[in-house]
Amino acid sequence: MRDVGIVAFAESQLTYGTTNTPVEMIVPTVNEVLKNAGIERTEVDFWCHGSCDYMTGQPFSFVAAVDALGAWPPIIESHVEMDGAWALYEAWVKIQMGEANVALVFGNGKSSAGDMNRALTLQQDPYTVAPLWPGLTAMEGIGACAALQAGTVTERQMAEAASRARRDGAKNGNVLVSGSESADELLSRAVTSAPFRDHDLPAMADGVSAIIIAAGHAAKRIAKRPAWIRAIDHRIDHQNLGWRDLARSTSAAIAASEVGVHNDKVDIAELHTTFSHHEQLLINALQLRTDATRITPSGGALVGNALMAAGLSRFGHAARAIFDGTADRAVAHAQQGACLQQNIVAVLEGN
Amino acid sequence: MSDKAADKPLRVRMPIGIDYKWCAGPASTDYLTGLKDGRLYGRRCPVCQMVYFPPRNGVCARDGVMLGESVEVGPKGTVTTFCIVNVPFLGQTIKLPYVAATIILDGAHLGFSHLLQEVEATDVRMGMRVEPVWRDKSDWDYSLENISHFRPTGEPDAPFDDYARYL
Amino acid sequence: MGANRCAVVGVGQTNHTTVRADVSIAGLVREAVDRALESAGMTLADIDAIVIGKAPDMLEGVMMPEMWLTDSLAASGKPVFRVHTAGSVGGSTAIVAAQHVMSGIHKRVLTVAFEKQSDGNAMWALSVPTPFGVPVHAGAGGYFSPIIRSYMRRSGAPAHIGAMVAVKDRTNACKNPYAHLHEPDWTLEKALETPMLWDPVRFIETCPSSDGAAALVMVSEDVADTMNVPKAWVHSTAMRSEPTMFAGRNQVSPRAGELCAEDLYRKAGITNPLEEIDVCEVYVPFSWFEPMWLENLGFAPKDHGWRFVEDGVTEMTGKLPFNPSGGVLSTNPIGASGMIRFGEAAMQVMGLAGEHQIDGAKKAMGHAYGGGSQFFAMWIVGSEKN
Questions:
Q1: Average of per-residue pLDDT across C1-12
Q2: I need a labelling partner for A162 at 20 to 30 A (CA). Which of A325, C110, C143, C381 fits?
Q3: The complex's ipTM?
């Protein structure tokens, strides 16, 4: 396998209710990640985009995004109807097979365009589940209840995840909510849709995330300390909630095992926790030791969840910790679908 | 097992409704506000200097940069190519046949599609010079539909070489 | 290129028609998948990863349907990947799947693309009216018809070329049991009598609207070498994109298509495509795109594509048969159409094309495009290792 590293990351200011079009949102972030890398767009030999038509309310919405790339002369480019983290995966495949050396990947979402809790129902079985319009929060609530009952997650762990996310969010700055409440304080708040309190839910956001990855020599030329992608793997679970053990994330565990998360010490893990109970489920699946591993120091999606970009942002924040020497070995994680249906995990190393 | 009804697969209709908020974005806001006043505004790319009308997503797709200054264009333009529509389709209310033309307004460098009327379909030519016919002012909204259609100006056709690069 | 070899060892497609009311979306997908697996002598349990493609989710009203199809593809615990690149998606999905093998990451990859247009409202989903949009006055064919007029003006092509292509494709489709349209009685004379819909485009020069799916099984060289089934070796793949619209963009012969073909031939070691390629399955949703693509892909000199058509070069008996399967003009399940092209190209070099087999085909091209003629995906497959 070729050595491939993350060499630059940019994330737009997260907002809710932007009046820009998706393309107007993308241009500045794409330009910023190029600037962070110190390269021209002509040096990028593969582009890959992750987005979802139902998040913008328009079929072929990604087509317009090509306008944001200055795709002239024509470029080698692809699009996945997935979180931008999977766009990174496709770029990694391209680099592995020798078709590219430098790739720019991005994900974008405008959660404020509509009622995403309702829209996300349309991912479910169109014959038996979607027509009931359960909504994402309700489906996640089923998952959380199952985990609480099985004892794989506790209510306190959920509150602690939320409390830490809000405190980290205050430091990060680029989030939608933050706070300094302790877990006890959060636990004293009202349950709004059992077993969730409001802080257990993601802060939906509009945003763009972009990353540049590069192979061997190119990576070393672009970044002082690339975040080398030592291994990356993604897996999916059954969708039908009745076929799954919702008290654990089987697909996350397989992906983590494939990339060897627990072969060595993990300094930080950026987990794509959209509902607070996900954090402990993922810690279990990835077999992380919380005494040795700092969990999601960016604050994560609980405090700023730009759909289709938030997963890629986890990769970006994990890479940043390598860039600045905060971590030598980091884990990046992204997921999509109800109840952690699909998970991607990568091990990033500085040395 | 000769139950006919059970043999036939069941098909049901399940309408899906989701409301979305749609934003025009800053570049198109200029253009739409202009239309409300009966004026035609495009935007110029600061790199290639081409004028986009309409300004689409607010970026120059060739250069990947935000479009710059607002530029008034038209009102006359040139038909670069066209289609004679003979088929009724969803939502179509105009008498057949009619001409949907690709028009580049004077001062702009990008074609857009609009109706061409007050001329027989068979007399329409590539290169024909045309002008907008506006609806009654009381009907104006933030829409290119404020222009009812375009019609020939009677000027000589533009030479093919003048617009060939925009086909 | 340091890539590993990859071979197509299984091809499957559904029977295509306007409404496949006899199956669910999952059933449609499984019909293609099961046929592909059967031709490879494999089962779903043998598959390492699945790559799924389709055009906009709004066509069926299921968001990211691969998440749901996981259940019917027994994919739990495996990697499932979803590609969406507009009309070219069937081709780009096959390419992404091949690259999962060529990169050395997986050994046995299944790819499937589908569209069940009858489950939704395709006319609506392909052009959902958005506020402030430029009014569209021309319907489905209205976007491409002016471009075709530009081509005719530039090249001096006579008006009957489009009908010639249509008659050829519809006649070829009668030899393909899976094709949607089986209309054996077309003549040029009758074709020219069909109504002009979007002048210069006639009724016969447009494609049908189909339900359907296509699937391919691709494996690494070491696996392929142990298998006693026909194989199509992937000699090269290429993709290119350009913006929908900018001042001065050539919409008749997009630069992205030209560059994509040049890259494809270079990687396959082809210096004279007309001489070296035996058969092409090219994405032609309006018949006039055949002469346009003949030029864009470097087979015919500029402005001469229509002469190839007139001289019968693209007939099944000609020097370079185009779409012996009947093409998109006879079968169009949007998201699957590109993968059908790629699969039909593979079937030709595997010798599996039955009545529409081109004898002795050794190298074949699969081609797909989408958006406003702006996304291109192509591959060359061969009966021998590259």
A1: 88
A2: A325
A3: 0.97
